[in-house]
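Lecture 7 notes: from sequence to structure.

We start with a single chain of 819 residues. Read the sequence below before looking at the structure.
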Amino acid sequence: MKRTIIISLMAAALLIVLTASTMLMVSNLGNVYATDEEQTVEAVRSAFSGSIILYIGSPEAIVNDQTTRIDPKNAAVVPFINNGRTLMPISFVANNLGFEVKWQEADRVVILKKDDLTLEFTLDSKIMKKNGAATEMETAAVIKNGRTLVPIFYVSKALGQFVTYDQGLIVLDSERIYKPAEDRAYLDSLIARLATLPIVGSKDKFNSLMKNIATAHNQDRGELVYGFDAVMIADPPVPAQDNAMPNEAPAVSQPEADVRQAKTTQVTAEGGGDLDYSSTNIQVEGVDEADIIKTDGQYIYHLAGMTLNIIKANAAGNMEMTCSFDLGKEQADFYPQDMYVDGDKLCLIGMEHNYQTFDFQIPRDTEDDIDIMPLHFGKSFTKVMVYDITNKAAPKLARDFSTEGNLISSRKVDNNLYLIINYYMSFYGLKEPSEVVPLYHDSSEMAGGKYSALDFTAMRYFPGEEDSSMLIVCGLDLKDDKEEAKITSIIGSGNTVYMSRSALYIAKHDYRGSFARGGSVSTDATTFFKFVLDNGNAIYSTKGETDGYVLNQYSLDEYNDCLRVATTVNSAGGSKNALTVFDESMQVIGKISDMAPGEQVYSARFMGEKAFMVTFRTVDPLFAIDLSDPRNPKVLGELKIPGYSTYLHPYDENHLIGFGRDTEELTTLDSKGNVVDVRAVNRGLKLALFDISDMTNPKEISVVSIGDESTHSDLLYNPKAMLFSREKGFIAFPVTQYSYSGKEEELFAGAHVYDISTSGIKLRGKISHGSGNNLDYDKYYDNLIQRIIYIGDTFYSAANGGIQANEIKSLKYLDYLKY
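Now the structure, written as tokens:
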């Protein structure tokens, strides 16, 4: 008879007796892990032959149908994913399989021994020895949180275990592999036991949760009322845009930038030889971000409004339109926003407003449940269109996916696209809350291509946190058009997204107000939800909280498994700023509070063990922060200069680029000459280079002012508008400038290119489409440069009306392709 985690009553009784004696021995010996304090553990005789069940990011496991803590003393010991490989804590698994575990400190070797089987692992090595014979694993054994973890698939096979892997669930069994299609209910029950969030599970439970939310926000009415006034929770106030007064932190949109400089890639040019080209200005290496323009070094892909243009281009500035098609005609009511290009796939992301009647049913709780066909007034979807561009002249739609809700942001890691979506639920006019469950559509072969409501059995919620929104994270494999999308749905919401290659963090800002004697008291707090990334799956792990709000994704950074966050804290006593460090379990381990009272964060940048923050009220303090000890972050230096930076970009390890605005301080005096008000007003753009080699004494070594208060650049709020290359010695970005001399008006719409080195910044020249000084407003928006990229030694500047080629060194005009 097969022995699994389902055992007979007789076996269970025997198990209890044996386990009791075994646990007594284990408690005296202690667990064995690869640390200085580790000691040899004598063989623990296995009292059972059942499954061992783990879950990515969970500190608990199921052994022989009993839930237990992997490490009772350290909740941070969990299975995790590293560079696409799943690792498990070896001592926990080996002990429960009856292996003796030894640690050889001198050689940094972990040895497992049982009967005639011996396994050896050397830390930071991919080599596993089985009875002396060496085998190369897919990744190395590592120490994390003082514990040894090894790659699960190779090691489990060596331990004589079959591995079932499903949505972050890991089942080790000596006799079988579970099949998700056949064992769905069983596997889901295991996930529900180990996951850190409870499952909604049914329509009735969803209705109950929503009614509790409505009641909590509508207590004065004494009855449940569906509608925006009863259940909708307002978004937190967003920071002001650039045209606001500078004592209000300007909002910076979601784009991010690489930790060192804009990445360049090499391809083989026609005729041989290597050709480099620019890529999107991203924040984290290996984590791509969407933009309106992409290049692979041979073709340029430009999304100009509703038109997708594919242009063949080369290093000499020659251009040829390969394909141009109106997406509005291709897909009615689809409004593209940006895109990704990966090999022979091009992925467009945008919004779709759909007014059709949807043929779907809310999932039933029972066979006797009554079907309800909801009343719809039109729906808005976040939509993905994946095209096969093997034939550049005729892209072919390979797949489309959409889900209700508004896109917060997206990322792409390898071939997996992640969409992070907020869905705001309105119950107005509905018979019951369950009618508002969001729909999704997936054309993949496995999904069936129909509109479906999100499944209650896969939906989760945050206990005690009232929210009438839904946070939806979707993972799509761009290489496999048949693979069904992986969808994570949680009743909750988010505002700002940061992603590394292994983890997703979603920040949710909460404005908290209360009334006290003497007036109202308001505070800010931000909750950070952490998800583990697993080949398209986003598995919720844990959360943390700190006071204040984050300006944008540049206010977050992950380094050595720690999340560092810069926030502005508003309170009754005024604003202040803070930097908080979380460990991988999202527990606060370090903090700097009360920075720059009365000011707000305008920009932040993390560079390994260093961090830089710009705050502003009337001058720009640049703070240099040491994060080498995450438990004891320190402000080492501070530089106060006029103006402020809305974006910081590393030049190299010892220099930092700042881009923002010049300001002028205005002082107001009363009739007696007393100062009654001091404020700052925006002037021109400001490009600066800082020397940060001495963190105790940061210096501004070069600065350029551009225009006056009417001068604008998309780079103020969108870092993807910047093109920077340290090797080629330039920085370029769009600029629009209006001036009026009293008789004549001048309008420049183009781009500025600057020479930049550690010696300083100097204007190389300007690029414009058309005449440059163009007061023909019918042509102005067509000539407004949106992005600058390069292929080889040629700049390509893109606008809605066309794309232009200029030499990089001389800026000599080469060619123009009109759309």
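Residues 563 and 801 are 42 Å apart (CA to CA). Keep this in mind for problem set 3.
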